[in-house]
TrEMBL record:
The chain crosses the membrane at residues 6-27. This is Nitroreductase. Gene3D superfamilies: NADH Oxidase. One of its GO terms (molecular function) is oxidoreductase activity.
């Protein structure tokens, strides 16, 4: 092999390696290093203005347990996830306050009826505003069974599941951090409520379920704290 050919191959390898450094591999990691690989769905950009004021959303907010058999749009799901846990600042601060900016939550979505989105379980990536597919299939009925057979969990178009990784916060604040994690769950939950109200959707905070069963269904090593069924209100 002559010197010119060797030099050419070296240049090609350097260029390819450089490109790969900047190409996003569609792979994420679970807490503890367990790998999740799957399709990545790029969500529509969230809107920063809407048709309903914060004051009106607060006044209209109710727990809604009855939903029509109608799909959500991908735009609606995007807006809900951004309100729950999206990035709102160049410094990577998010839509809900977090003690010491430790952000102990991961947000999963059990999708059953969303336009242009395959049913399945997805993990929300707030940094890229994308969804990573964890499991295919409609898991709403399985989640309903794990949630003491609360029918609205199975009837909702989607179920948003908040999963806590306590160590992210307790490693800074000790046992006091457990309280801060629970406070943050409330912050995120209220954001979901208000955004759903502004989108003329319905939701309800569900806290009664078997933790281990929900964790197994969505495929996480964290602790599920909340399920938020979301759908088009009915009845």
């Amino acid at each position: 092999m002559n010197i010119k050919r060797v030099s050419y191959l070296v240049i090609v390898l350097v260029v390819v390696s450089s490109v790969l450094l900047f190409v996003k591999p569609y792979v994420t990691w679970r807490e503890g290093g367990e790998r999740i690989s799957g399709e990545v769905v790029v969500l529509p950009e969230p809107r920063l203005t809407g048709e309903m004021s914060v004051e009106e959303a607060i006044a209209r907010r109710r727990s809604i347990r009855s939903y029509r058999n109608e799909p959500l749009t991908l735009e609606q799901l995007s807006q809900l996830l951004w309100a729950a846990h999206g990035i709102t600042d160049p410094r990577k601060y998010r839509s809900a306050p977090s003690a010491g900016a430790t952000y102990p939550f991961e947000v999963y979505v059990v999708v059953g009826n969303v336009e242009a989105l395959e049913p399945g379980i997805y993990r929300y990536d707030p940094f890229n505003h994308t969804l990573t597919l964890v499991k295919r299939g409609d898991w709403r009925k399985a989640l309903q069974k794990a949630a003491l057979d609360q029918s609205w969990v199975g009837r909702a178009a989607v179920d948003i599941v908040l999963v806590a990784f306590y160590r992210r916060t307790t490693s800074y604040y000790g046992e006091r951090g457990v309280r801060y994690v629970h406070m943050e769950a409330g912050h995120i939950g209220q954001n979901i409520y208000l955004q759903a109200t502004a989108l003329k959707l319905g939701t309800v905070a569900v806290g009664a379920f078997y933790d281990d069963q929900v964790a197994e269904i969505i495929g996480t090593e964290g602790v599920p704290l909340y399920i938020f069924p979301v759908g088009v209100p009915g009845g």
